[in-house]
Design goal:
Helix content is 33%, strand content 21%. It is an alpha/beta fold.
Length: 230
């Protein structure tokens, strides 16, 4: 079962190394998003909404331990009903990642936020996924997507990229001792190999064409009369 493989991998030294950095990013990204409804799609065993201030939080996945059990390609939520949607490593394990993003755009309110994480094929992690024998092992069995392709899909759907980042420049060696020894690579990677992180993060805002924010015209004669003391 895929969910069991995911849970076991995230308990490994390499999985814990990744999880520490992903929590740090998601905790910051969701903390300043306000609204009423937030949904995390995928990885139900990990709560990436733990630092969100939004009152109603739901996890949606195909696994039986999800709060809402559903296919990410067909989300059971009303159109324009969510203020925050989190997609941690969902696209690379979907048969139709573009459809997943299309559903994300459908359920988000105008100006709502999407936060996602994906494995980078142009990295040492992506190279690992090409090795023989990795077809059945999580996460190497996923279809890693180029960040440029994901950005293009978002642009076509009216999802405007507002922020992005990368992490995990170290080789994906599943040994705690070697991961500690190579910790110097992280700051060097951010500086010298900015697009070579094993994982990328993207934040996008749903834009609606033709929607303008109407501000009060306080300088009009009518407004002045209303504001003037009796």
């Amino acid at each position: 079962m895929v969910s069991k493989l995911e849970a076991e991998w995230f308990e490994s030294p390499l999985g814990q190394h990744l999880l520490f950095r992903e929590f740090r990013y998601f905790d910051h990204a969701v903390s300043d998003v306000f609204g009423f409804n937030a949904v995390q799609v995928g990885l139900p065993q990990i709560n990436f909404l733990r630092n969100s201030r939004i009152p109603l939080q739901v996890n949606c996945a195909m696994e039986s331990d999800a709060g809402v059990r559903a296919n990410p390609m067909f989300l059971p939520f009303e159109s324009q009903s969510l203020d925050l949607l989190v997609l941690p490593h969902v696209l690379e394990f979907s048969a139709n990642p573009h459809q997943v993003l299309r559903e994300a755009e459908r359920v988000l309110r105008p100006e709502a936020r999407l936060v996602m994480a994906g494995f980078n094929p142009r990295s040492l992690w992506g190279l690992m996924s090409n090795f023989k024998g990795s077809e059945s092992a999580y996460p190497w069995n996923g279809n890693f997507l180029n960040i440029s392709r994901v950005k293009d899909w978002m642009a076509l759907l009216g999802l405007e990229v507002a922020a992005g980042s990368m992490c995990c420049y170290r080789p994906p060696i599943n040994r705690e001792k070697w991961l500690r020894r190579m910790r110097f690579i992280e700051p060097a990677g951010d500086r010298w190999w900015a697009m070579g992180g094993g994982v990328y993060f993207l934040q996008a805002v749903k834009r609606v064409q033709g929607m303008n924010v109407i501000l009060p015209q306080w300088k009009t004669p009518v407004a002045r009369r209303l504001l003037s003391p009796a």
